[in-house]
Amino acid sequence: MNKVFIGIGSNIGNRELNIEMALANINGSVGQIIVQSPTYETEPWGFESKNHFLNLVVLIDTALNPDDLLDALQSIERSLGRQRESIVYQNRPIDLDILFFNESVVNSPNLTIPHPHIGERMFVLKPLADIAPELVHPVLKKSIRIMAENCPDKGLVKKVDDSQLFGRSN
Predict the structure, then answer these.
(1) Residues 6 or more apart in contact with residue 18 via CB below 8 angstroms
(2) What is the CATH number of domain 2-164?
(3) Any idea which residues carry the catalytic annotation?
């Protein structure tokens, strides 16, 4: 089985329900969720919007290869109303990003692993550091903890009391 970290975010519609549905779809058709980070409220990154995101990271076990996983995640995004109309950042009901796939490095026209912007995004690094602080980026050769400590992103990343979210209790 492949160990994969997936970043999950939503900033429009019922954010909690969008994420809950994405988690159910991932767990049902993509692989098994092994660990789920706390949820964070975050400011949009790379574009202006009044809509804050909810973000978290999950670690899954999957039998899928990277390309098939990308197809499956994009299918989940489409089923939850995501439309990829342009390459610019925009509001979205759900965003599913492959952050790490084992220790693999993938550079293809459709997919880059590790995700190319991990080191610039505290909304990814903080939840990732909560569940895998000593994970080492296979290209940068730095731990997630060190990357989070040195991240230039100073936008809002606020832990949500998610005992009320997703039917979980902490």
Answers:
(1) 10, 80, 81, 93, 94
(2) 3.30.70.560
(3) 82, 92, 95, 97
